[in-house]
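re: that chain from earlier
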Amino acid sequence: MSYTIFDVEITEPLDDLHAAGDDEGVAILLRRKGVPIAFWMEELGSRPAFRSDALADEIARRAGEEILAEAIREELGRPFVPPPLPLLSVAICTRDGGERVARLLDSLGETLPTVAEPNGSLDIIVVDNAPSDDRTRTLVDERGGARYVLEPRPGLNFARNRAIAEARGALLAFLDDDVVVDQHWRRGLAEAVGENPDAVAFTGLVLPLELTTRAQVLFEQRGGFRRGFEKIRYGARLPGNPLYPAGAGIFGAGANMAFRTDVLRELGGFDEALDTGGPVPGGGDLDIFYRIIRAGRPIAYEPRFLAFHEHRRELAELRRQYRRSWGLGFMVFVTKCLRADPERRLQLLAFIAWWFRWELFELGRSIAGRHPIRGSDPIPPAMILGELYGGIVGLLGGYGRSRRRVARIRRSLP
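^ sequence. v structure.
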């Protein structure tokens, strides 16, 4: 099972879309003058190609209103010119990243600078987290254009906090080593900062880099890391969501996020008992988003702040991700909030109950062979069961166990 991804610019003539080899379908990223406005996956069935006339009809059905609204805004209003970004530090936290780091550095070098950036190039920091060899150091030294920093204590949030200590910029972006950035990535961040001068965190759209395996297709059919194509500003409350901000995943993905550096330092950085690698591989991004909202500071989501993520290629890897990142890591984050935020305890307990009801509903739908998106394959029951199991393990003392483990790491590697 695989899909060819096409990047379609609607201001240019449409061509027939031909999938490669034995691909079952196509995935379409739709843009207008470089701005992403829609993404969908389309099965080809017995068709040899997705013809341009059918593509035009599908664009009108899926994004016609958005295209019209954008055209009217462009005609009636002045184009928004974002102010220049201050010096931007970019942290790539990796462990034995090798070729992935090189690929990401290449994409950063291809991003279009925003107008009149006064501080020159990006301040790129590659934080090598408890590496097994010197390949990443050698790569960075040979390429130039980035600073290499060693963080010997294992765990993503140790690496993130090292980046905070090392950052020179007023803004600090974090990129996972398995993403590449869009050429308009810097412009997207500048737009989010310019339109939201009081916001302290900025998240962006994350789309698939490839859809070449069944695991990647399944993950993207379930929604992937997408958070939509509308600008969103999050504040202290979200009307219609009584559990907000407990579901911190709504804000964006840790694979592509940026912050005002001074605010990260004021908040004490990332909680090192979350995102600690194998034992708790998740929760760190959710926790910092939650803490920012609870501190009364806004978060802005900007779809033009776009990165492409290389999803897990193997089903076994995807099952582990469901069990450990979205089951265990997520529930460890929630139980940490129960401990640290007693004012929201009843809300958080209600959120836990909602999460288990939703997982059981998803499990029932999976066993019945149904998928919420028509034409998509159902998620295998083993993945939902793994997520449930991980959530239960995290709920039953996961945060306390992680804190004790992190304390031992700090003593052994001060």
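The radius of gyration is 21 Å.
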